[in-house]
Amino acid sequence: MIVRLARHLLILLTMLAASFYLPEFYWQLFYKKPIATRITHSIIQDDFLITRTDTQGTTTYWTTQGQSLTRREYIQNNPFLFYSQLQRWGIAPDSVKGYPMRDFSNRIHTMSLRFDPRETAIAQIPLYPLLESAGEYITLSFPDDFFRIRQRLEFISPVDRSIVDSLTIRFSDALDAAGFQYPAQSIYGNPTTHKIFDEGYYVVDQAGRLWHLKKVDGKPFIQLIELPAGCQVQSLQVIEHPIRQIRAALLTRERDYYFILWDDYRPVRLPLDRAPGRPGTVSIYLDPFGCQLLHNRENSTTCYLLDRDYRLLKSHTETWTPRHETLAGRVYGALFPYSCQIRSADDRYIHLTLRLNGWPALIGIAVALLATLLARRYYPALRRSPIAELGWVAVGGLYGFIALLLIPPDPED
Amino acid sequence: MALPENTEPLRPLRALIFKEWLKIRWVLWGALLISLGVLTLIALEQRQLFRNNKPFDVWFMVIFRRRLFYAELRFIPLAIGVISGLAQFVPEIIKKRLRLAFHLPVSETGLILTMQLIGLTASLLTSLGLLAGLALITHWYYPAEIVFSAVITLLPWLLAGWMGYSATVTVLIEPVWFRRIVLLAIYFGLIRFFFAGFSYGDYSLSWGWYVLLTLATTMPVFLSGHRFRRGFHT
């Protein structure tokens, strides 16, 4: 009995290993990376411009009408994005659509950053340094302690691991008074001194409410951010940029993207597509005329042009054939009923999950069943296998077939 | 009802346990020595780091630069598991001595289970020693959050040690070379899963599945043992 159980477990383990490695080998052989597509909005042409970079690194530039541009033309049509380059060529404009460019600086008047929700979906040690946000010096410096939020906000000294009572009491009392519910669910911030100023942390409390916490002159600054009812933060990126228009970009569990505005902490929902699939990444670009959002997803990229109040003006989408709809993808779907995956495109953890490949896998399963029946004719060891063992092929397709071939029953079993 | 101490059926088991102990005791002492050595090295490195740097910076490096100060331990449990398996079963397959053990008045399953349990217990003890040692060193310099993260990060490596032991035993006592190669490929493929992470806490959402996987891989040894006893050649 135990020997039979051992054999079936071995078959199961073989199928598990095969379902990880065979799809890996398959894609190593047949995967072709799609052409990388990027869209920007040209203030000069008042239209979207598209760049396509192939796998060899060759970039071409296009208008939405399919007209080809040179690299120089592309740069000239994006004066905010490439202002330094235009200066180098000596053709920087004095003004763009009435906006004076004399004192223009990319570092101050534009902002470019990428928000990838996966970056925060990673194991974290919940200890954070709380920098002084209104320090005496121009450069930022780290404090002497870390904070954590358990049943109160505690500051802990790395020197002797003792609790720094004065700060702990001061900050915990302030959080208590504000109505913060312990412990914190998640804490987001940029714990670095390589930035121009510090805006502390954004903390989700036990009730799911979002708080802004920072240290100003050694005292706590706490601000509750009123999110729309039912909104639960899934990921948040703190933005500390001299343009000071947006405090944070966040993704909710309902898959909505929001900006938290600088002046009044008002959340503004971004008009991004909520189509099913992975949330993707959002590149944010602010210039004096408004905002561009480039939403990159599995098989599409969309550029949204927003005005200065973050209202949608227009958008343009470029799509490409998703991997599973290519010829290689269709063969893959039929050949492999599922694949074992240890990495996820949604986070940075290691998993052990099976991902089903859908109905086309039935074709592969049928072929594998036929192959097993044929193999039973010509492979004596497999003939000993009871017909019920075809069940392994029925659930595992190719993997089950391989496992039965490799681990056939022994003569007297 | 519990059997009295001198009951007849317990004697071969005691003898078996003693024989297995004789085979792996040097490996165990060696494993203990190596573990102690590496733990001492880690402790000295930490001492040096804290003496020559601001403690804040060291904590920061661990928390935000995600530096695994215990990365040297990564393959040690696996090595201990494999070497324990080799020490325990290479003497048994030379001239097929394991067949003699099958003549003991103990069932085939009981015999293999006992032998495997001894190896797994040895592997578990060294793993627990490593875990306790690392927790102690980490606790000396860091807060509970970092101790917890170190322990949870070490877990899959310890499980890999168990799987390494099971893999070695299963492959060694399998009598047919082709099947040995197949088993080796399967176990190698599965063991790689335990080393896919490069940062702390990578397995914290899935370690339960990895425990199940490790337990599942302890079973095929019964199939190899059965085939060995029956003397299969194909």
Helix share, percent of chain B: over 70%
Number of helices of chain B: 9
Apparent shape of chain A: flat
How many beta-strand segments of chain B? Answer: 0
Structural class of chain A: alpha+beta
Describe the structure.
Chain A has 413 residues and is α+β, with helices and mostly antiparallel strands. Chain A has three domains: 2-32 and 327-406, no CATH class; 36-106, no CATH class; 108-269, no CATH class. In chain A, 26% of the residues lie in helices and 30% in strands. Chain A has a five-stranded antiparallel beta sheet. Chain A has a four-stranded antiparallel beta sheet with strand order 1-2-3-4. In chain A, β14 and β15 (246-252) form a beta hairpin. Chain A is flat and about 85 Å long. The N and C termini of chain A lie close together (10 Å). Chain B has one domain. In chain B, α5 packs antiparallel against α9. The chains are: A alpha+beta (413), B mainly alpha (234). Chains A and B meet through α1 and β23 of A and α2, α6, α7, α8 and α9 of B.
